[in-house]
Amino acid sequence: MENTCNLRAKFLKKDEHLDKCNNPECQNFIHPSCFNKLLVVFAAEDWEGPAYCGKRCFNSNKKMLEAAVSKVKEEVPWHTDRPTPERNSMSVIIDWLMTDGNYSRWQGGDKQNGTSKVGIANELSQLRKAKGITVDRPGRDVHVRINCLEQQFKAAKD
Q1: Does residue 98 register a pLDDT over 70?
Q2: What is the C-alpha to C-alpha distance for residues 122 and 116, in angstroms, rounded to an integer?
Q3: Rounded Cα distance, 111 and 20, in Å
Q4: Angle of CA points 85, 90, 94, to nearest 5°
Q5: pTM above 0.90?
Q6: Residue 157 phi/psi, 5° resolution?
Q7: Which residue in 14, 17, 138, 156 has the fewest CB atoms around it within 10 Å?
Q8: Phi, psi of 11 (to 5 degrees)
């Protein structure tokens, strides 16, 4: 069987060689210029990785690479992401919750103000940064953490 590009040389430059698809489960070939055109279609012009024969191979391997990178990032516990031992994300959140009116505000007691839990969680995320905590924790993570604290408190109370 002859090695051919599945795109049938639509974007072929004269006398261009064929590259094998870098998906180990795939036996297809593609011209480098055809792959570059696919990158434009995939909105991934800045891709510097290996060539793939089509969208299915490209996306499956891109997902594997992204998953490998996310596993490399270590999660830092909330009580150890500190500039000092006394000041960490957990202490900032607990201090905020214990300040008069803040837990009521979190529970929805400040409806006239119109601030949602998401908005408050984003404020807390910014407050952490202002206190010198450099580990990135988006508002949604703060929201989840406060929900976990509430559940732990309710379980301990019962």
Answers
A1: yes
A2: 10
A3: 60
A4: 115
A5: no
A6: -70, -35
A7: 14
A8: -120, 20
How many other C-beta atoms lie within 10 A of the C-beta of residue 130?
Answer: 9
Reported as half-sphere exposure (CB side, CA atoms, 13 A), residue 95 has a value of 11
Q: SS in 3 state form for the chain? A: CCCCECCCCCCCCCCCCCEECCCCCCCCEECHHHHHHHHHHCCCCCCCCCCCCCHHHHHHHHHHHHHHHHHHCCCCCCCCCCCECCECHHHHHHHHHHCCCHHHHHHCCCCCCCCCHHHHHHHHHHHHHHCCCCCCCCHHHHHHHHHHHHHHHHHHHC
Apex CA 114: angle with CA 98 and CA 120, to 5°?
A: 40
